[in-house]
Amino acid sequence: MGGLAALTTEQLALWTEQARHKAQYGQVMTRISRLKAVQADWFATCVDHNGQADLWGDIHCVFPLMSVIKPFMVLYLLEQFGADTLFRWVGMQPSDAPFNSLEQLIADSGRPRNPMLNSGAIALAGRLPGATSYDRCQGLCAWLNHQARCHLEIDKGTLVSVRSEGRGVNQAIAETLVQYGHLAAAEIALDTYEQICCLAGQVSDLARLGNLLAHPSAAIASQHRRAVNALMLTCGLYEASSTYAVRIGLPMKSGISGALLSVVPGQGSIACYSPALDPIGNPIAGLALVEVLAQRLELSVF
Q: Is 302 within the bounds of a domain?
């Protein structure tokens, strides 16, 4: 018997410790001081199979989701407005450029190539319901906490760091979106984007979010869940997405904090926190663990 149901506690412990050693080949994000002030070898994982969670490592660490929030903003907006409307705002094509590439946005005439890139997420942040950026972030947070039974809240320290140290490129992206008519107002969209990226929780919270995409639910349209999974598979690891679609074969999303989420449709989710990143911005140890799990347990969707 394969699948997540076949995973034992002993296997998870062994494979987690083996993957943890891969962190020495990566580097924590240095551009934002709050993200820099962590230990590169921290590692937490939660494998959730039909609501039964197996946890290992530094499971009490609280970390900002950063870009891992992007698929869930897409899910929220799909439920609010539908696919036809959302994909008029952003595209669904994979990218071979970095996640914050201004050059690609300009080459694409200011239309975000997909919502997993910073340009796409900033454009969608401008579409979230709410009068203020705080209202918009809290609306999304409350919906996710209710749907997934998780406990996300804003990491205020990280938000201060992002606003003071990490804004330059994203500010230029927001202004370019306005220039090309794909965003009405740069400041509220950028501030909303920064807040939602600083929503934080433990690895168990991230796994619960993943279950929203793993299992059918009366509360979320199946076609919306499938659309988000497809975007994660093709775009969720940026220019490395196609490589890991072949090597792992699961919908995945990473964040520069070290957050990593893998969805195993029909079974559950694999959530990791490992701050050491590869040059693209994906967590090295987390990807190593998910690759082992996918191969040993035959998890690929293909």
A: no
Whether 203 contacts 271, CB under 8 Å: yes
Q: What one-letter code names the amino acid at 218?
A: A
266-277 average pLDDT score: 97
CATH for 239:
3.40.710.10
Q: How far is CA 254 from CA 10, 27, 129, 194, 282, in A?
A: 26, 15, 25, 16, 6
Number of domains in the chain: 2
Query: Following CA atoms 38, 253, 119, 279 in sequence, which dihedral angle do they give, to the nearest 10 degrees?
Result: 50
Residue the block writes with tokens 């807040």: 195
Domain range enclosing 186? 67-199
The pTM of the whole model exceeds 0.85? yes
Residues 78, 189, single domain; the answer is yes
- Are 52 and 101 part of one and the same domain? no
Statement: residue 1 has pLDDT above 70: no
Say yes or no: 145 and 257 in one domain.
no
Determine the longest span between alpha carbons in the chain, in angstroms.
Answer: 55
Could you say which of 199, 221, 253 is where a domain stops? 199
CA–CA separation, 98 vs 104, rounded Å? 9
Count the neighbouring beta carbons within 10 Å of the beta carbon of residue 52: 10
Q: Which of 92, 90, 112 is nearest to 101 (CA)?
A: 112
Low-confidence winner among 166-175, 237-246, 265-274, 275-284 (lowest mean pLDDT): 166-175
Looking at the structure, tell me whether residues 76 and 178 fall in a common domain: yes
**Structure tokens belonging to residue 71:** 């698929």
Cα 234–chain centre separation = 13
- What are the tokens at 189? 């969209």
Same-domain check for residues 157 and 280:
no
Residue 48, strand partner residues: 53, 269
Q: Is the pLDDT assigned to residue 165 strictly greater than 90?
A: no
Tell me how crowded residue 5 is: count the other CB atoms within 10 A of its CB.
12
Structure tokens at 48: 């959730």
